[in-house]
Amino acid sequence: MKSDSESSELKIPPDLCLDSPLWHFAGRYWSRSGAQTAALALQTRGWSVTDILCGLWLALQGCHFSGTDSVAVTAWRSRVTEPLRQARKAISKNNPVTDRARNCIAQGELEAEKVELALAYRALNRDNRSSDSLSEHAVKTLALENLQAAAPEKAMDNETGSLLDTLTTELQIFAEEEQRTW
Amino acid sequence: MVMKWLIRLAFPALGVLVMLIFFGLGDPTETTPAAQDSADAEEIPAFEGLVPSPIPTEGPEIVFKWQDSDGGWHYADSPPETGHWNALAIERADQPNGPSGNSDPVSDWQSPYSAPFSMNSGPVNNGS
Questions:
Q1: Helices marked H in B2-124 — which ranges?
Q2: By the CB < 8 Å criterion, does B50 face chain A?
Q3: Pfam families given for it (chain A) (predicted)?
């Protein structure tokens, strides 16, 4: 028997901004293959990519990340994003019968991740009001602190530490490139 | 006299040599305590701990799509620096297209799942 929280519709604000600065950061940062690989490797270890992106984006803003998700983000993730991901993974590739269904679900999963990031941005915008301008080195240090706050468990092995270092180094390079662009 | 003793000693020596050939030498005994070995093992981290293991890339690529001021559509593996863009999940290029795949370049932008694009670098995916 389903509980009320599982059967009721999620209340997503109709004015939710999907094209948020967090989403734009996610798109540009995700284009870096090293960062993407490291983030996906952490995802297989139980990390939330949304939390990773939030922590890194907040570091760029000079803000600390609490590591806790809002209720809206957690509900959306557990009831929409993750079921879509599981459904996509349940369908094998290279099967002409199911290829289109798999692709449609993958696109739906991507759209769900976009909404999840929008919900996360809304919560972050509410919680983090002050920010400081930081040097690239300070950004890397703060990013590591934020990622440690986003960790699913406190104990980390060498491989996890290496992946975090990859993410923060990529962020440092990203910040330098962004500064040159603007 | 010396020659006589050398011949007498040669036979036992030959016997010992034959025995060694058949039975060999015993295993070398440990010269260092086991505790020191375990301490060394702890000092050297495992190779698997230093090098991240490769992750499966079974997910689709993410391709960014946007329209310029002239109305032209663009597809790339990174979004534009400014302006609105959409992210598309597309099956990896090394995968054969199913029968539903649309290869018409004119209408492909309407069907994001098989849109043709020129990737500038390595494949990108969302782990999806």
A1: 2-23, 34-43, 47-50
A2: yes
A3: DUF2390
Over residues B40-73, the pLDDT tens digits come to 555 665 655 555 555 555 566 788 889 888 888 9
Per the CB < 8 A criterion, the answer to whether B111 and B64 are in contact is no
- Of the candidates A96, A104, A157, the beta carbon closest to that of B99 is on A96
Q: Where are the domains of chain A?
A: 18-181
Dihedral sign from CA coordinates of A140, A145, A149, A154:
positive
CB contact under 8 A, B89 and A109: yes
**pLDDT of the residue at A137:** 67
Q: Which of B55, B81, B95 sits opposite A93 (nearest CB)?
A: B95
Q: Are A116 and A50 in contact (CB under 8 A)?
A: yes
- 3-state helix, strand, coil split of chain A in percent (to 5) is 70, 0, 30
Distance from C-alpha of A27 to C-alpha of A5, rounded to nearest angstrom: 32
Low-confidence ranges of chain A (pLDDT < 50): none
User: What is the tens place of the pLDDT at every residue in B101-111?
Assistant: 333 433 333 33
